[in-house]
């Protein structure tokens, strides 16, 4: 019967101590950030390239919005 349990004298030496709560919080935050990065780049071979393209597209859209006269929204009607 007691073959699965270690002797009580050796159990204190083999016990695993839990880390400091601050260390544990930091490790959990790092793991969550890593999972988030992996999830966001799932299916994308070069995540950096995608981010650069997205930033470039936003910059182009900002330029287009700034160059529009009078804030008309860029739509013009032509009758002719």
Description of the structure:
With 80 residues, the protein is mostly helical. It has a domain of 46 residues. Helix content is 60%, strand content 0%. The termini are far apart. The model has no long low-confidence stretch (mean pLDDT 79). This is Small VCP/p97-interacting protein. One of its GO terms (cellular component) is endoplasmic reticulum membrane.
List the helices and strands and how they pair.
Blueprint lengths: L7 H7 L6 H20 L6 H21 L13
Give the low-confidence spans: none
The residue fraction in helices comes out at: 55-70%
Number of helices: 3
**Strand-residue proportion:** under 5%
Number of β-strand runs: 0
Major sheet size, sense and barrel closure: none
Radius of gyration (Å): 29 Å
Question: pLDDT average, as an integer?
Answer: 79
Form type: rod-shaped
Distance between the termini: 98 Å
Structural class: mainly alpha
Overview features:
mainly alpha; 80 residues; single chain; 3 helices
Give the gist of this structure.
Residues 21-37 have a biased composition (Basic and acidic residues). The chain is mainly α and 80 residues long. It contains three helices and no strands.
